[in-house]
Amino acid sequence: MSIESGLPAGFNPNAYDAIIVGAGFAGAVCARRLAEAVNYKVCVLERRDHIAGNAYDYYDEAGILVHKYGPHIYHTTDDRVDTFLSRFTDWTPYQHKVLANVHGTLMPVPFNHASLKLAFGDEEGERLYQKLVGTFGQDKKVPIMELRKKNDPDLERVADYVYENVFLHYTMKQWGKTPDQIDPAVMGRVPVFVGNDDRYFPQAPHQGMPAESYTKLFERMLGHDLIDVFLDVDARDVFDITDTKLSVCGKSYGGEVIYTGALDELFDFDLGALPYRTVDMVFETLDEDQFQPVGTVNYTVSENFTRITEFKNMTGQVVPGKTTIMREYSRTYLPGVGETPYYVINEPENLELYRRYRDRVAGLLNFHVVGRLAEYRYYDMDGVTASALDLSDELISQH
């Protein structure tokens, strides 16, 4: 792998069998697979000044490994994804746990046995828990809509508490909605866990954090002799797209193009901007060993930020007397000004606008879209990886 800033003078796109836009999970997975499976010479164009996409991490001034674009917790049920990514990193064991700060009391999320006792007191919480066990069985995840359907005042009381104190105000902050704008169907899916397991991803057999860093993982994934990476290159400056033809740097290009960026940006928002929520992340280094007991604490009923992440609690890094935390402030994404779009707003009119952009490239047989932005959908890291593995399978089979 070579990494350069900017394209060199006389850059010839046709020296490459594939051009990939984006050096995050989607782009890096495709680059590696095409290089090693079919010996493609691969060019990766990355708009930022670093690889690894939103998973990029680095050591701050206190020497603490932090995630620049928010916490990334690796977890998957997909054995193929785990096998592929594990080629490029060892994993530090980590089971993600989340607490909700409810009026100053920290209780596990999803709401469980311990949460009930914290919310209602030991005796009453235990009584309510035993009613949940008798109704639904133990170690079951039950949506609060199911609690309401039983027409039992005790179960409705639990549902009301979870809705009001865990879901409603947090969702309003996260998505910028008022209570009447929140879909009741979404509200009904909020779970209560009838059991003691306080892990956030209890069903994922593969969990952990990269033993060194996500950035090191990407360095190894892109570390192939047939892969060249060019940073600080915006695809909009080098691509010229019509319905049936694609040019790169003014030259007709017939190799494979894999695009992982936002389609509306590629076309300068000429049909309108796809809406997202973004997050302002405020980092703070504190002169103490530990700020909070777990990696993530959600502030569900108070504060104007949504959550606080403490990175040492996730990575297991030991830095005596220092810790770095990050507060997240959710707001509307402003297109075209360099902000990071994080969360798709999955509403019919937005999906229709995305379809119109997608149709713009449907006639380009060598143009493929993959990833969170290019597909306009929310993905965890394993989902992006799986989608990229599927696309690269398709391209490899056609070789």
From TrEMBL:
SUPFAM superfamilies found in the cross-reference section: FAD-linked reductases, C-terminal domain (SSF54373), Nucleotide-binding domain (SSF51971)
InterPro entries in the record: UDP-GALP_mutase (IPR004379), UDP-GalPyranose_mutase_C (IPR015899)
Positions in coiled-coil regions: none
Keywords, ordered alphabetically: FAD, Flavoprotein, Isomerase
Entry keyword DNA damage: no
Membrane-spanning ranges: none
Broad EC category: isomerase
Cofactor(s), names only, from the UniProt record: FAD
GO MF annotation terms: UDP-galactopyranose mutase activity
Domain UDP-galactopyranose mutase C-terminal: 166-378
Pfam families recorded: GLF, NAD_binding_8
Enzyme Commission no: 5.4.99.9
Family label: Belongs to the UDP-galactopyranose/dTDP-fucopyranose mutase family.
UniProt-recorded name of the protein: UDP-galactopyranose mutase
